[in-house]
Amino acid sequence: MSRQGHRAKPPAARTVLVTATAWALAAIFVLPYLEMVVTAGRPAGELRDSGYLPGHFDWSSFVRVWSDTTLAQNLRITLVVALGSTLLVLAVALPAAYYTARVDFRGRKAFLLLVLVTQMFQPTALQVGLYREFFTLDLLDTVLVLVLANAAFNLAFAVWILSAYIAAIPVELEEAAQIDGNGRIGALFRVTLPLAMPGVVTAVIFTFIAAWNEFVMGLTLTTSTDRQPLTVGINNMIGAYSVQWNYVFAASVVAIVPVIVLFAVIERHVVSGLTAGSVR
User: Fold this and answer.
1) Is residue 26 one of the residues assigned to a domain?
2) Which residues have CB under 8 Å from 109's CB, separation 6+?
3) How far apart are the C-alpha atoms of 35 and 41, rounded to whole Å?
4) Going along the chain, which residue ranges are E strands?
5) How far is CA 273 from CA 87, 100, 199, 213, 262, in A?
6) Residue 243, SS3?
């Protein structure tokens, strides 16, 4: 047979259209981030120029922002809050989700419905009550208050996604492990959790990103600049009479890099975790 017989067919018009549309949408979403990087590299004298690209780039803003602002301390606070709230959510959501998925107790559906309903409440609408509660507990302006608040607002999603994923794992696997000499706890850690790891990773990444990007609670519950998260620290760079845009955009680039790297590393686990329970 000639080589012409094996020549690949050109892509269909629909495939070309879908691919071009996808690239166009990707460019639209990426463009603001490129503008952020370009602005961070603009010299101070060219920040108000209308051109998209500066005459020359000055990347010293990425160096000076660490010494001239509280970026390093805000970044440390955000990292502690994100990790702390993620670990707290995981410690509470795992047993709750396991019990909900494995035990058909009275009020189970009502509990799951209540978990789902709590997702409808916005943190902004509860700020007054939260402020009063933490004021009574003398926890305002601390790292602990941010950990507790972020964990509370992300717990419902973690319970929901983990419960759906654990319920999709056949209970016979745990029963077989118990026959082999493992107790319920041993079967949980040796059988169920390894199989539910994509769901666990999904809960972890969404909780971490939500805590990393949170702004309103950090602004309301903290007042000291050295105890505020990164999002509030960047907002503090916007003064009443002047704005150091090169610092703002340089700090914003620093803020999004860890999340992008983390999401890129475990993206495949997130996709499989979100589709948990969709196929039976």
Assistant:
1) no
2) none
3) 10
4) none
5) 18, 18, 4, 21, 16
6) strand
Please report, for the domain that includes residue 149, its CATH number: 1.10.3720.10
Alpha carbon distances (Å) from 253 to 34, 72, 234? 10, 14, 11
Burial class (CB in 10 A: 0-12, 13-18, 19+), 17: exposed
> How far is Cα 177 from Cα 184, in angstroms, rounded to an integer?
9
Rounded to whole angstroms, how far apart are CA atoms 60 and 250? 10
- Write down the residue that tokens 């850690």 correspond to: 189
Count of structural domains, the chain? 1
- Backbone dihedral region for residue 42 (phi beyond 0: left; psi -120 to 50: alpha; all else: beta): beta
Identify the residue whose tokens are 């902004």: 124
Domain span at residue 111 reads 61-274
Global confidence as pTM: 0.81
**Cα–Cα–Cα angle for 200, 206, 207, nearest 5°?**
85
Q: Calculate what percentage of the chain has a pLDDT beyond 90.
A: 24
For residues 234 and 228, what is the distance between their CA atoms, to the nearest angstrom? 10
Does residue 229 belong to any structural domain of this protein?
A: yes
Render pLDDT for 10-46 as a digit per residue (tens, 0 to 9).
667 788 888 889 999 988 988 888 888 888 888 877 7
Provide the 10 A C-beta neighbour count for residue 146: 27
Within a domain: residue 51?
no
Output the pLDDT for position 79. 93
The C-alpha angle 148, 167, 155, rounded to 5 degrees, equals 10
Measured N-to-C along each axis, helices 108-118 and 143-167 cross at an angle, to the nearest 10 degrees, of 130
24, part of any domain: no
Three-state helix/strand/coil letters over 128-152:
HHHHHHHHHCCCCCCHHHHHHHHHH
| Integer CA distances (angstroms), 179 to 23, 103, 176, 184, 186, in order | 53, 19, 5, 10, 11
